[in-house]
Structure formats: C-alpha cells, structure tokens
Amino acid sequence: QVQLVESGGGSVQAGDSLRLTCAASGNSYMRRSMGWFRQAPGKEREGIAAVNNGGSTSYADSVKGRFTISTDNAKTTLYLEMNRLKPEDTAMYYCAADRALWGVAAGVPAFDTWGQGTQVTVSS
Q1: Residue 54's closest CA among 71, 40, 67?
Q2: How far apart are CA 42 and CA 35, in angstroms?
Q3: Residue 13's beta-bridge partner residues?
Q4: Are the C-beta atoms of 101 and 31 separated by less than 8 Å?
Q5: Would strands 18-26 and 2-7 be described as parallel, antiparallel, or unpaired?
Q6: Model pLDDT for residues 71-97, shown as the tens digit of each residue
C-alpha cells in the first residue's frame, strides 16, 4: 500500500514559480513510476510529468521546458518545479504512483494510487 500527500499549491501571478511536493510512503515497489497530473474545472484529468525507476522522465507538451519533475533517491518525495506559470496552468494538481514503469503518455488509467490534490491558481 502507498500513501501520497501533496503540498505546495497556492495562488500566484502569471510568470511566477511554484514547487509542488508529494510525500510518499509505503511499499516502494508499488511506486516504481510516479507522476503529476492536473484537472481544471470542467476538463478531464491529464498527465503532465512522470518519472520511473528506469530513469526516464516525460512531460506533456503543454509544460515541457517550464516544469521539471524530480525525486529524492529513495523516491519518498516527488517534486514538481513549475516556472513561468500561465493562467491556463490553473488546476488541481495530483500526485500518482504505480508499480509498472510508465511514462506520462500512459495517462490516468495506468496509475493506481493517488493523492488528494493541491490547488494551483494562476492569475493574469
């Protein structure tokens, strides 16, 4: 069993930066892939960044070059560094984990453990 707890969200201005943190606990085998997803009001949840034990990171085109995903060595903490934030980045951000080696393209169905989310609001 894996538990994920996100933090670090907030309200910022366009162009600002934020760093999200996801504290992970439980069976490390069950979180060989970890990722960040987001869901804006009225929209489907989408994957934006992922990292796995194979050393691979992947990003959605909408955040590539602005967001960076990283973990500590033990994968007990997952980070999402978000730079040059835009109003369209406004969403609830979720941390997710899975036992398989996924990339962000695998999408929501591939990840079986989720955190409760942290809200990011970017105003223009």
Answers
A1: 71
A2: 22
A3: 123
A4: no
A5: antiparallel
A6: 988 889 999 999 999 999 999 999 999
For residue 2, the cross-strand partners are: 26
Map residue 69 onto helix, strand or coil.
strand
26-79 pLDDT, tens digit per residue, is 988 888 999 999 999 999 999 999 999 887 999 999 999 999 999 988 889 999
101/73 Cα distance (integer angstroms): 17
Q: Among candidates 31, 69, 63, 64, which has minimal Cα distance to 50?
A: 69
Nearest CA to 75 among 55, 102, 105? 55
**82: part of which helix (H) or strand (E)?**
strand 77-82
Long-range CB pairs of 43-47 (<8 Å, 24+ gap) are 43/91, 44/108, 45/94, 45/108, 46/107, 46/108, 47/104, 47/105, 47/106, 47/107, 47/108
Dig out the tokens for 53 from the structure: 């034990």
3 state DSSP class of 10: strand
User: Position of tokens 């730079």?
Assistant: 83
